[in-house]
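Sample A.
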Amino acid sequence: DDYAMMREVLTRRFARMMKEPDEETRPDLVIIDGGKGQLSAALQVFADLGLDPQAEGIAVIGVAKGRRETESGERRVDRTMGATGEQVVMPGREPFLLGPRDPALFYLQRVRDEAHRFAIGAHRAKRAKTISANPVDDIPGVGPGRKRALLNHFGSAKAIARAKPEDLAAVEGVSEALAQRIYDFFHGG
């Protein structure tokens, strides 16, 4: 849900700004990737936080593919602007199109591309961390060597979790006390 993700990001960012006001980190411009709907959702976040972007000197704009309504009421990309035409939406103003050769368009595209690159990189890093996370890492007294020995012996963290204390103690480097601690860790003991 793009709207929910956008609301979450904006809420976190601007709630933090309100708690810890800092002119150095306060933005002058917030660019929303989307049109009227996304801009309205962003402005609602500001309202929910009791923040008036205009009074704070923060411009909020939405940037979307240039679209217009067809005779049937369907919204389509406006081909008269070329493949790269973008529509800029601002509160209280009519949307306007930036032509395909407009320097402002090139700038906004670079900002958007950098934001996408950053978001994709952060998402990949988070996913890689989640994939490599292992509950065995959280057991006190089990370092990398014992973790390796346990995984080599049992094959997976799930198998370690199902093992009885005596089976755990059979692994080289795992004492009876540590075996019980591992068992208790997985069984809420």
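Sample B.
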Amino acid sequence: MPRRESPNPGDSLWSLIAVQLRRHRDERGLSGADLAELFDRDRSTISRLESGEIKLTEELARIADDAWSTGDLFVTLVRFAKEGHDREWFQTHTALEARASEQRIWEALWIPGLLQTESYTRAQVTAAGFLDIDERVAKRMKRQESLNRNPPPLMRVILDEGVITQPVGSPEIMHEQLARLLELAALPNITIRIVPKSTGAHVGRDGSFKILTVDGEDSAYIEAAEEGRLVQDATDVRSFRLRFDRISDRALDADTSMQRIREVMEGFR
């Protein structure tokens, strides 16, 4: 397996952790396979940990500290990194999104970025008050290229009904956007379902999130204004999978959801 490039340790605490993990392994004359055995993970996971592509969990940090007598170095670094703001979060999220074989998306406020028309994106970015509108629109449209991969990603999308009824831009923009959803939902790899307003309170009201599957491993991404948070700890990610399943239980089936989107779309004529 080719050796991946090390991240810059000055970029973030997570990058520093990745560099330190490789350095401590090398200092002890251990191979990647040796560390994989210690962590009870496969070799590709070790490569991704040391390149900074995925983050060291507190569980694995504890194993490294105990085995190498580091004085809780890795546990301490991981705890500080989890508490602080990671400047690389969006870069990591975008890289995972581009490679994900499956995406599970729950969106409570907006049409998901990968499914937006350019006009909808521009209206959303303009309403948010950003000055670099053209740049933001171009970047979002660029991200949508991941939908054209071969094979394309499997996408399971659940939207709050308010997402399709809330006007963003003009009626023409909304009509075009909802038509785009119907077009995408007709593809064999994309399912779009709606949680009706009549559902009332449910776990999805806490906020939007997505679960990305890359090389058989899941990461969760929590959306927030101006920033987000990437979650890669196995226990935390499992809680998001359970939350997605509970939201899915509240959603209309795919055919009924498409019917509802058509009804709303016609209202925007």
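B remarks: The chain has two domains: 13-83, 89-267. Residues 171 and 210 are 28 Å apart (CA to CA).
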